[in-house]
Amino acid sequence: MYAWPASEVPALPGQGRDLRIHDTATEGLVTLDPGPVARIYVCGITPYDATHMGHAATYNAFDLVQRVWLDTKRQVHYVQNVTDVDDPLLERAQRDDIDWVALAEKETALFREDMTALRMLPPRHYIGAVEAIPGIVPLVERLRDAGAAYELDGDIYFSVESDPNFGKVSNLDAAAMRVLSAERGGDPERPGKKNPLDPMLWMAARAGEPSWDGGSLGQGRPGWHIECVAIALDHLGMTFDVQGGGSDLAFPHHEMGASHAQVLTGEFPMAKAYVHAGMVGLHGEKMSKSKGNLVFVSRLRRDGVDPAAIRLTLLAHHYRADWEWTDQVLQDAVDRLGRWRAAVSRPDGPDAEALVEEIRAALANDLDAPAALAAVDRWVTRQDTEGGTDIGAPGVVSRAVDALLGVAL
């Protein structure tokens, strides 16, 4: 599977700062100090609907992580998956009377278009669950043969009790985990499981559903969590720098994935930091496909909204915050974009070297994009009220906003 084209990231003078970011596992800020190549895995879409603002907010957060690292002169090894076979996808395809493969391809293509328009930097490896199956099967077999997995009516389940570090990602108690498992794709009430929280590794073939040769596992398809583990271990190895996604992935997805990887390798932790973005709401509820309360990036683009304004809307909210999408927050971003573009279109302006450092400092401090935007606003206000004589300043501001915030002025 291929990703989308990369927009050019302008080089800035000086050196960026190491990123200090909130780690869900330790429940505090950690300073990341990757080697020459920073490694990040971000969980991708299940392509049964278009990219909504909740998706966009998540990928914007981890795009900022990449930009901070690039500004420190590091390379970035970014991996993202596509869950191109899963129950929600199959259910939507059946509802709409469309081939599930065609649906997945159509929505993945639209996602690529949205990411390109929003200037999100692409992953080096963009891997679908289906193409990862040859690597998933031997991992499930290894877990089963090691006694960390068991069969139940042909399905293979992972035993969470096989990992002494289970629970250290989300820090939830068993009761809370059980509730979230039921809400987020698990089956804690299924009879015969050793532990209600045990997640499925391999689903035996069901009538009328796609399946693949699983060797000694039989015909079937992979569970959700093992998909990301196989892709991450193959391309990044253990103890990579950041595991990212929305806050609803901390449990069960990242918790279970970490346990799978830790049992498979005998190493801990899977990732140095587990970083989670907040949820975007609409009309008082979390924006989600199941509720149907979605604002789509593609629809906004078709309505003529500048993708840079969409991105500024996202940047106006701290990545960990839950927030509400409204027409007003978009209009505020449209207005801000207009002010910024007018300010950098002039032949000169106030010195901008300090502004670059302000943006760097804000982003290095747990991706504080609102503080970075406020710093640019202050420079724009000075440009409007005082002007300046530095003929290079508008260009410096434009390049810094592009490189660090991903907004083309």
3D architecture notes:
The protein is of the alpha/beta class and about 400 residues long. Helices cover about 45% and strands about 15% of the residues. It folds into 2 domains: about 20-275, HUPs (Rossmann fold, 3-Layer(aba) Sandwich), CATH 3.40.50.620; about 300-405, Anticodon-binding domain of a subclass of class I aminoacyl-tRNA synthetases (Four Helix Bundle (Hemerythrin (Met), subunit A), Up-down Bundle). Strands 5-4-3-11-12 form a 5-stranded parallel β-sheet, sandwiched between helices. The chain has a 5-stranded antiparallel β-sheet with strand order 6-7-8-10-9. A 3-stranded mixed β-sheet has the order 14-13-15, with helices on one face. α9 packs across α10 (about 325-345), α11 (about 355-365) runs antiparallel to α12 and α11 packs parallel to α13. The relative contact order is 0.15. The mean pLDDT is about 95.
CATH uppermost class of the largest domain: Alpha Beta
Biggest beta sheet summary = 5 strands, parallel
Give the overall silhouette. Answer: globular
CATH architecture descriptor name of the largest domain: 3-Layer(aba) Sandwich
Measured between the Cα atoms of the first and last residue, the distance is: 31 Å
Q: How much helix is in the residues?
A: 40-55%
Biggest sheet, spatial arrangement of strands: 5-4-3-11-12
Tell me the CATH topology of the largest domain.
Rossmann fold
If helices are DSSP runs of H or I spanning 4 or more residues, what is the number of helices? 13
Question: Would you list the SSEs in sequence order as H and E?
Answer: EEEHEHHEHEEHEEEHEHEEEHHEHHHH
Beta-strand residue fraction: 15-25%
SS-based class: alpha/beta
* Domain tally: 2
- Summarize model confidence as the mean pLDDT: 96
Question: Uncertain segments of ≥5 residues (pLDDT<50)?
Answer: none
Strand tally, please? 15
**Rg (CA only):** 22 Å
CATH superfamily of the largest domain: HUPs
